[in-house]
Structure to design on (894 residues):
């Protein structure tokens, strides 16, 4: 296992260090804010007799050197092991996340990065206290649930009601506005498993949608089939948002096998004419109006005032240690930056590594950064967050100005030896760079 | 998923119906109680011109007919779906197990079997009430544990202590009898993953061993790495037994990733000189001196007074619905028996199908059956329990008298078309037929 994890983390890190190293070193800036600027094209093959659109010998050599070094490094694994063991779960605004920020500063300093600091911000706090559920009739047995982030509590002692199943969120939205009063809505929509994670977005829609549609119809609670395709009895949490003006009903996810079980019970009870399936659930939560979180920021200073942002998010959900989501992103980007840091000489551009705070609960760190750095956003020439797991890389996507696409494709050519290639100019760049992307900063994503 | 499960259950069921059908129909009895008896060899090729050691045309036709029918049947899946949905968890002595017995009688009757009945017995009752644990220092975070069956409780409010890790039960046994006073013993021994399940026995040894060796040394609790190779955060329960004359300490299993985490924490704390790793744990349990369980028994009456026993165990642990352990065994054997039941004419021998009670907590049903039926054990010519999962069959093992091995191998030849073959005469027959096997009844096992 160790071997496997290490090599997966290496491949992400290899790609990132190579790519960021290339972007940081090549001279002209990428297109920013739709202003007319020089393109990166001019930098390709700079200072050599290479044909247009090709990397110079020196550039190729540097790229291959970074790849070779990264393939031998266990640093990403070591960073991840340290974060998940010393700190563990890091719920946004929690004591765990606060300890993680201190760990982040220590880690950045130990890697030799400059200007390590915590940029704090405030956000509301939510945490789970208790969550139990069971089928109470006609086939009594326990169900494995987890409250969705931001869910209100049930009455103390819980609630109980008849369950009405909907095969999809769309079916629930199509349901009449009456007929569900006093009932528990169950949205059984499964997530589609895809290599590029494209099944996630549609699956997430039901996370908020179910409770809001249930509340709108007078239901007393909403259950969803877990987002995710895991077959174990581990429900998947994640945040939801209540819409304004709708009664807020408690909402939770059932693990996939428990969703199967509830669906089977409903079908069987109907076939046996055994009466409606009823569920009892008890969710207790703790909330505070305001707590502190923060982004942990460090830099490899460049020769110009241009900035490239990479990183992952430091906060995690509370049900595990956040190794994949997003300890891996933290580890990959810090290890990649370390390789660039160790190259002879300064990069042309400053590389800013960010451990984002409070991503899971609504991109609070992302918005705080965009606000706190709004006066220098025009100097951000590229941004990317690593928040897509720790498996092998098979593609890289860009979102740059049309005149830079060819140059970007040229830059990424050396990672072909790792089985990865450029695939399209529609990168989203990762959740925490969303405010940068919408402000016009070019982004890239590794897949 | 449905498709896959169905076909796995089918293959088990195919093999069992074919095999039991063959054994029930062939005339002479297998060797029993080491008495000199006719062997099954004489029945092979009976009433035909087949060469010695081969099945007759009629026997081959009947075997292939059973296999063909079984391959088309979804009955095993339907029985399993009904048991796990209507009843769910069936902890020995619980209300769930009692409901399961009623379900068992209903199911046997609906399949057309005769003499459906519950044969009750008593046993002590144990159930979990609460179980939590966390690393309290130096890296505070929660651990996923489950109490081992029969564990005593911690003091109300829990206990806390320094953890001492042992790589194996053997290492703990080798440790001096002093030096662990007031500490928590952690036996980190992993289970080896093997196709034939041979890693299970050695892994189970630590389930009782850890607490007894810990108690002997003045430790206050014992934790083990879960038996099993699952990588999810689901600890594996199972029963343990305290030895006489040793202080009884509470004991629980950590899921595999949580065992990894505790081991990493111990290593890291040592490397950082951060002080000892301490764990807090709280286990509360409920016990009763005596409760009722029972075996559910039914028959396909034969022409002679000889009996073949097949079945699975009805009780399960409480953390899931007991679909694999051992709902699958119940489903496979009931569906197999139904195929034989539907053949024209009576089998020569009575096939007795048993849903055993209270297997998980110490073979109470097995011992009760052997005692209740001791006067007819000499008429039991073969026994087998299906308690090895629901995957495809790849081998069948026998434990018959030496003079019957050749005949047994001949009988099982038709299942070669399913990719399975005879493999050795050392079958254990399954846990609940242990008292029968030790009394001299021949057994077989499907793997």
């Amino acid at each position: 296992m160790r071997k496997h994890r290490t090599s997966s983390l290496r491949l992400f890190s290899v790609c990132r260090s190579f790519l960021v190293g290339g972007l940081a070193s090549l001279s002209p800036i990428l297109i920013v804010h739709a202003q007319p600027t020089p393109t990166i094209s001019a930098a390709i093959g700079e200072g050599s007799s290479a044909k247009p659109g090709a990397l110079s010998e020196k550039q190729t050599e540097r790229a291959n050197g970074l790849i070779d070094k990264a393939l031998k490094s266990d640093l990403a694994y070591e960073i991840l092991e340290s974060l998940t063991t010393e700190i563990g779960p890091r719920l946004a605004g929690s004591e765990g996340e606060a300890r993680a920020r201190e760990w982040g500063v220590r880690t950045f300093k130990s890697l030799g990065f400059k200007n390590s600091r915590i940029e704090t911000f405030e956000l509301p706090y939510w945490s789970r206290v208790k969550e139990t559920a069971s089928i109470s009739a006609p086939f009594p047995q326990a169900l494995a649930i987890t409250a969705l982030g931001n869910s209100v509590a049930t009455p103390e002692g819980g609630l109980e009601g008849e369950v009405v199943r909907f095969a999809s969120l769309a079916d629930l939205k199509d349901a009449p506005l009456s007929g569900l009063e006093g009932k528990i809505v169950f949205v059984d929509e499964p997530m589609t498993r895809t290599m590029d994670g494209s099944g996630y977005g549609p699956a997430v829609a039901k996370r908020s949608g179910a409770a809001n549609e249930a509340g709108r119809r007078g239901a007393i609670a909403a259950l969803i089939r877990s987002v995710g395709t895991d077959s174990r009895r581990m429900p998947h949490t994640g945040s939801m948002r209540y819409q304004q003006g709708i009664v807020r009903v408690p909402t939770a996810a059932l693990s996939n096998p428990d969703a199967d079980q509830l669906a089977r019970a409903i079908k069987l009870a109907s076939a046996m004419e055994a009466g409606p399936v009823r569920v009892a659930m008890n969710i207790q939560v703790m909330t505070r109006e305001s707590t502190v979180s923060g982004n942990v920021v460090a830099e490899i200073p460049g020769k110009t005032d241009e900035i490239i942002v990479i990183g992952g998010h430091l906060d995690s959900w509370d049900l595990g240690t956040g190794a994949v989501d997003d300890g891996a992103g933290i580890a990959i980007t810090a290890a990649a930056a370390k390789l660039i840091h160790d190259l002879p000489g300064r990069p042309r551009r400053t590389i800013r590594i960010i451990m984002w705070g409070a991503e899971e609960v609504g991109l609070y760190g992302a918005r705080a950064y965009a606000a706190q750095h709004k006066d220098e956003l025009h100097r951000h020439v590229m941004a990317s967050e690593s928040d897509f797991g720790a498996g092998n890389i098979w593609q890289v996507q860009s979102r740059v100005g049309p005149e830079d696409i060819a140059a970007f494709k040229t830059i990424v050519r050396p990672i072909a030896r790792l089985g990865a290639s450029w695939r399209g100019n529609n990168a989203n760049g990762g959740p925490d760079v969303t405010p940068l992307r919408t402000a016009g900063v070019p982004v890239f994503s590794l897949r």
Chain A touches chain B at residues 1, 81-82, 84-89, 96, 135, 139-142, 230-234, 261, 264-265, 268, 319-321 (CB under 8 Å).
